Amino acid sequence: MSWKNELQKDRRKLIASIPFTRNIVEYLEDTSDGKSDNYEFLTKLLHIKDGSENITVEQLEEVFNNVYKERKEFENKDIKVFSILFEEAEKIFNEPHEGVKVENKLVLSIASRLYAEKFMISKLEKVSRRTKFKGNQTPKLIEEYKKHYPSNEKEISILEQINMMAVENIHVNSFMYEPIIDLTDYYLKDIYECAKELYINECKTADELVAVAMD
From its phi and psi, is residue 100 left (phi > 0), alpha (psi between -120 and 50) or beta? Predict the structure, then answer.
């Protein structure tokens, strides 16, 4: 992977390398039934799982060094990986169109899916205990969401677009990787904005309910 030597200084390539590295782990290790700690760890950075939001750069550094068998020292080890991810996604969203920058497309795609999952989990926690799934988590959350909120057609349409865009397994093979290259920055930014707004509006609603309860 040509990015491997740039991970220490390029935050976007660091984030974008997470699905690449997980795919490499699939080739190198037995990932069935939770047997690969590396795979499970990297999956936590691509989906909302228990402990996802607390993972630090130092922990990611350890896994990358373990997978690539070479020692690299990352800066700002105490920073949460999600903090970097969402900060960079917002910067990319506000930047002018830059053509094909794969790392930017991946950062936006990952952030969009995480916002979508945050939204669905928040909504489902109000009506269902089913918010944790193994394998293909995003489509399973969408199906659960549709069961409980069938009339929310606009939200369901956005969620399904996000699921189509954010492919579960992004392959190292460049032929398999073509779909994300074909997606325009404008489309990805629109999807990102929709996903973020879903989550932010859900948080606002939750805050309003808490405020009412405290009055």
Answer: beta
CA dihedral 20, 168, 15, 21 (to 10 degrees): -20
Task: Name, in order, each residue with C-beta under 8 angstroms of 131's C-beta and a sequence gap of 6 or more.
Answer: 120, 121, 124, 125, 141, 144
Q: Which residues lie below 8 Å from residue 66, measured CB to CB, with a gap of 6+?
A: 38
| CA distance linking residue 15 with residue 86, whole number of Å | 10
Domains of the chain, residue spans: 2-81, 101-214
Residue 209 CB-half CA count within 13 A:
7
- 109: tokens are 């795609």
- Give the model confidence (pLDDT) of 119-136 as tens digits: 999 999 999 877 888 878
Note the pLDDT tens digit of each residue in 53-110.
999 999 999 999 999 988 888 988 999 999 999 999 999 999 987 666 889 989 999 9
Contact (CB, 8 A) for 170 and 183: no
